[in-house]
Amino acid sequence: MIPLDKPIAEKYEIDISSYNWSEDNAKDSAKYFDDQSDLISIEVDFANSKFILILDLTAEESKNWDMKKWNDHLRSIL
C-alpha cells in the first residue's frame, strides 16, 4: 500500500519485477486494476518493471481523503 509516513502524492511507482510477467500480462493486469475504480489509473513502465499508480486527487469523492482512506480504497479493489 501507499506509505503512511509520507505526504499524499499524485503518482506512485510499484515494483512488479517479482511477478515475472510478460509485457502483455503486465498491460492486462494494469487494465484490470484501472477498471476497478474511477479514482485511479495505472500506467505500465515495462522496461523498468513498474506500474505507475496515479491517484485522482481532485475528484469530488476523494479530494479530502487522507492516506488511510486511500489505502482502504486500494485494498477494496485489489
TrEMBL record:
It comes from the Bacteria. This is Uncharacterized protein. It comes from Portibacter lacus.
